[in-house]
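Priority: medium. Attachment 1 of 2:
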């Protein structure tokens, strides 16, 4: 299934028995903003899931700011939202698709393939005059047996071991100034994983929607032939956006460093590079 769905195609499916729409609006600056926005208005039938509470696991010393939930906990959360083994899931947010992309990646990781992101998100829906409601959805609780795809994710130890591996290309999805180490608004150390190439997730978009497939193929052409691609960001959320864009470009199998930069800098043995260049891997 293509990772994206258009406003028109989603609108035509509203009310279908096998459809589950997930509202994933979230703001790092105000973690309750998405919940308030959902209460005010949302797509008909949409269920709200919170990035910190529903789409992440418990915080610890390591694992980053948005650690992965356990497969069992994630499957339970999605099941309560109405996701079953054969459900068609569509996720949206009110920004650039960053958190909706997290939903897409999580469900794929759990073995659920019928999942898409609304291209353009809530802004595109509203621009097209799509219906909204303030009625809180009461989804039919479903269940499915998670079948986590372990090859989709790596951790700090794996990445550290493979830093000098010529077959592994690492992509940093954060903004250029964070990659260069000029600023670090959240995490305790600035810079990037040595050897990582900077491909900011925001550059996957044009006018609030994903660029067309040809443009994305051109964007990722210099990494597309790598035997192994690993993508990270600040906490494992926006990196999923790059992985989705890679899929649109025809590049499948990129792995997520789930803890990402916030996990990397929590380890004393993790080297850090700064500046425009990738730096020398350890």
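Attachment 2 of 2:
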């Amino acid at each position: 299934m293509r990772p994206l769905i258009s406003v028109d195609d989603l609108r035509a499916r509203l009310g279908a028995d096998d459809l589950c729409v997930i509202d994933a609006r979230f703001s790092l600056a105000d973690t309750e903003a998405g919940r308030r926005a959902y209460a005010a208005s949302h797509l008909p039938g949409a269920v709200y899931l919170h990035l910190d509470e529903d789409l992440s696991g418990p915080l610890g010393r390591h694992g980053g700011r948005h650690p992965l939930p356990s497969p069992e906990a994630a499957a339970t959360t999605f099941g309560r939202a109405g996701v079953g083994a054969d459900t068609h899931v569509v996720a949206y947010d009110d920004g650039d698709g960053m958190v909706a992309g997290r939903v897409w990646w999580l469900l794929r990781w759990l073995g659920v393939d019928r999942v898409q992101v609304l291209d353009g998100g809530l802004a595109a829906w509203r621009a097209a005059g799509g219906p909204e409601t303030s009625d809180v959805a009461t989804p039919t609780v479903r269940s499915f047996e998670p079948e986590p795809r372990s090859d989709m994710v790596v951790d700090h130890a794996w990445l550290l071991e493979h830093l000098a591996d010529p077959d592994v290309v690492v992509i940093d999805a954060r903004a250029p100034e964070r990659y260069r180490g000029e600023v670090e608004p959240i995490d305790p150390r600035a810079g990037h994983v040595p050897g990582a190439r900077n491909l900011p997730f925001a550059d996957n978009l044009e006018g609030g929607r994903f660029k067309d497939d040809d443009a994305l193929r051109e964007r990722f052409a210099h990494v597309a032939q790598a035997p192994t691609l690993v993508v990270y960001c600040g906490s494992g959320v926006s990196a999923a956006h790059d992985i989705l864009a890679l899929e649109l470009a025809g590049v499948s199998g990129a792995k997520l460093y789930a803890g990402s930069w916030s996990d990397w800098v929590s380890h004393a043995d993790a080297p850090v590079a700064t500046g425009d260049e990738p730096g020398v891997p350890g």
